[in-house]
Amino acid sequence: MTVEKRPPDAPLWVGMTSDGDFRIDISDSDIRHAKVSWLTAWESDVTNVRVSALYEEYAGLVRAQAQQIAEDFRAGEASTLG
């Protein structure tokens, strides 16, 4: 599987793999911004529903990036094995 490389400054960049599948590339910066948004809301007078929604967004990005890293690792391992 070949993945288009993310432009360095692109937020939540969507690329296409050589298989024709779409891939969303999540950066550390995306996660950092989501975390700051969640913590800022948590410390303010925003409703608990909004704080919970921001936390779920943050946690979802962390899980998605972990999956992305695992896929990249597996793709790298497969290419070295032949």
Characterize this entry briefly.
The protein has helices at residues 28-43, 48-81, and strands spanning 13-16, 22-25.
Keywords, please?
about 80 residues, mainly alpha, two-stranded antiparallel ribbon, single chain, 2 strands
Q: Could you explain how this protein is built, in words?
A:
The protein has 82 residues and is mainly α. The protein has a domain at 27-81. It contains 2 helices and 2 strands; from the N terminus they run E-E-H-H. The chain has helices spanning 28-43, 48-81; strands spanning 13-16, 22-25. The chain has a two-stranded antiparallel sheet. Helix 1 runs antiparallel to helix 2 (48-81). The longest helix is centred in the last third of the chain and has 34 residues, at 48-81. It is elongated and about 55 Å long. The relative contact order is 0.13.
Task: Produce the secondary structure layout.
Blueprint: E1 13-16, E2 22-25, H1 28-43, H2 48-81
Antiparallel strand pairs: 1-2
Helix pairs in contact: 1-2
